Amino acid sequence: MANVAKKVSWSGRDRDDDDEDGRAGETTPLLNGSGPGAAGSGRQLTPSSFLRIGQLSNVDLNEDIHELETEVPRQRPNEIPHNEKLLSLKYESLDYDNSENQLFLEEERRINHAAFRTVEIKRWVICAMIGILTGLVACFIDIVVENLAGLKYRVVKDNIDKFTAKGGLSFSLLLWATLNASVVMVGSLIVAFIEPVAAGSGIPQIKCYLNGVKIPHVVRLKTLVIKVCGVILSVVGGLAVGKEGPMIHSGSVIAAGISQGRSTSLKRDFKIFEYFRRDTEKRDFVSAGAAAGVSAAFGAPVGGVLFSLEEGASFWNQFLTWRIFFASMISTFTLNSVLSVYHGNAWDLSSPGLINFGRFDSEKMGYTIQEIPIFIFMGVVGGILGALFNALNYWLTMFRIRYIHRPCLQVVEAMLVAAVTATVGFVMIYCSRDCQPIQGSSVAYPLQLFCADGEYNSMATAFFNTPEKSVVNLFHDPPGSYNPMTLGMFTLMYFFLACWTYGLTVSAGVFIPSLLIGAAWGRLFGISLSYLTKGSIWADPGKYALMGAAAQLGGIVRMTLSLTVIMMEATGNVTYGFPIMLVLMTAKIVGDYFVEGLYDMHIQLQSVPFLHWEAPVTSHSLTAREVMSTPVTCLRRIERVGTVVDILSDTSSNHNGFPVVESNPDTTQVAGLRGLILRSQLIVLLKHKVFVERANLSLVQHACLPALLGSDHSWVSLSWMSPLCSLCSLC
Q1: What are the start and end residues of every segment in region (Disordered) (predicted)?
Q2: What is the distance between the alpha carbons of residues 188 and 651, in angstroms, rounded to a whole number?
Q3: DSSP string, 121-178
């Protein structure tokens, strides 16, 4: 294509390594450069072993490809030119369509009915394992964050209480900022220098993977470890982030690793689930992992299935729906059981997700028909604020791509944001005079500061706490718990802090910050309505905090169906389904008028060739020749070995697949298309020297298996490896 540029990718590398399943990268000699020993060893193959080469689901390309890998040093210019209108050469497509060549069909015919039933049972076992491990990872994150964050807040609270009495609160500010910056520095270091693809929530990368785009390192075990450690350190470090979004990425990595039965990071092959070592099967399990991650994060198994359908998978079928729902339910149950035992209530399954919005009582917080227009207006406000958030983050991300692309600068920026976040929180708490009685409140770390005895600072409830607990407090604290000025200042400051934080080189999500911003201005909206209506009972601040949270999150991420169900399941109240749906639809419509959603925007900024559900409206008049480059790199059914090696070694044609055409002596006629052969298949042929002599070419046309002869005039027969095209009759 003409509009292609090479640029920085999510992984932060100028190379394209292999994923967790051992797929080949772009830096091997035959995968963009020739090298000695490319043809590999000259092992003699029997017909049975030769057939095994064609069984692509069982071919272990690790052995053949890892021997060819070379390391390319990172090149980091001072400024990276960027144009989001261009596509990147770094991304290749995954092979979601099975290569239905002769050997693949023979392999499928050998599988009887009992074997297919065994394969189906293994699918259910894998989905159960995905749910269990995803739930356990979520438990680990929640328990560690709760203990470390509690320790930090207790230390800072004791220090503030001590210096409030005798002066010198600047030392408390320094302690808070230093603790935050130190913890975030560790989290940013491991992401920037060990696995850059673990930065952010990981949802854009998983969307691309399920769309069919190969993102380097996105489903590797090392990515999972860095993701889990990074999100713990980010939340404990006090950044305006949440731990729920990265659970989707974590669940996807778990699913990819289990379904393949091996790990590239550990260099271990457990020799299990070999039938599923193909991109088609792996894609389905990654969809289940993403749904299990949503289910563990919000306690919403149905919402997880709908999220995987709406935001993730581009391929879907009826059987997949039930398996994904099964994995989601197992994930929620595992998390619920472990956390209940941890909290000392083994038989009280009251912790279905990492965040629980609490029970919304329909009798006390119901809504009336006259409130529907008010909810729609809140959706409009959420859409406008979401569009503003996305636009600011867009220009900030462009600045980062151009100037803050070195790992050391990325770590410094993360530390700066952590210190600024602590400073802003301290100054806001220090300047606030909003004091509330501590009796009957559920504040975890009440700060008295300059309030009277028996009172606490209300601003500290929002800033001096983890974001998840702050959201729940805004939902359920009784009326009068917050001064309108407190909510207004918190909304303004936290909006810009969250916008600045998203895109840092740390593992973090945007779900909880969006909910917190929306809950703050939604509660402020409810207080204003209560003043205007002389304290009417229907103007409950907690109810409007919920609607504001939905509006803000919908305006940023532009999710409708799945987010509606997630909010319903998280609140445990179906009554709010209709107003939440109206709010989300309005926020999406209004936000889309100005700018696209946050995830789609970051996918575009990385120049990923992402295919949306609908084609552009002007694409119906385009033909293939208008978007393809010429001349087309293709191979004949019987091709010289030297020609194949030259094509694979050519850095200007780093394609993963090549069309196979019919040899035509008459050059005036267009060669007929006979199929497609993958780069990985060509590597297997060259590695095992599956060649034929020039004298035996006439035999190849009558035999399926070419002779295994090695000479200076060898040819490669591609007819048995290339799948037949459905348009062969028209060629």
Answers
A1: 1-44
A2: 34
A3: HHHHHHHHHHHHHHHHHHHHHHHHHHHHHHHHHHHHHHHHHHHHHHS-HHHHHHHHHH
Check whether the bond before 631 is cis (ω within 30° of 0): yes
Q: What are the angstrom distances between the C-alpha of 62 and each of 22, 257, 275, 472?
A: 6, 15, 16, 48
C-alpha to C-alpha distance for 172 and 185, rounded to whole angstroms = 20
Q: What is the pLDDT of residues 290-348, one digit of tens each?
A: 999 999 999 899 999 999 888 766 677 788 899 999 999 999 999 999 998 888 887 77
For the beta carbon of residue 693, count every other beta carbon within 10 angstroms. 17
User: 450: alpha, beta or left, given left = phi > 0 and alpha = psi -120 to 50?
Assistant: alpha
Phi, psi of 88 (to 5 degrees): -95, 140
For residues 682 and 253, what is the distance between their CA atoms, to the nearest angstrom? 28
Picking from 371, 678, 406, 411, the residue whose alpha carbon sits closest to that of residue 539 is: 371
Determine the residue type at 316.
W
**Spans in the chain with pLDDT lower than 50:** 1-8, 11, 13-80, 699-712, 720, 722-731
349: buried, middle or exposed (CB in 10 Å: 19+, 13-18, 0-12)?
middle
Tokens, residue 401? 């791509």
Name 93's bridge partners. Answer: 213
Q: Which residues contact 162 (CB under 8 A, 6 or more apart)?
A: none
What is the maximal distance between C-alpha atoms in the chain?
100
* Single-letter residue type at 130: I
User: CA-to-CA distance for 411 and 142, rounded, in angstroms?
Assistant: 25
Query: Can you tell me whether residue 667 is helix, strand or coil?
Result: coil
DSSP bridge pairs for 269: 262
Q: What is the pLDDT of residue 670?
A: 62
Question: Tokens at residue 574, please?
Answer: 């179906």
In the numeric block, the tokens 């035509």 are attached to 664
Strand pairing category for 213-214 and 262-263: unpaired
CB atoms within 10 A of CB 572: 14
Main-chain dihedrals φ then ψ at residue 51, nearest 5 degrees: -60, -35
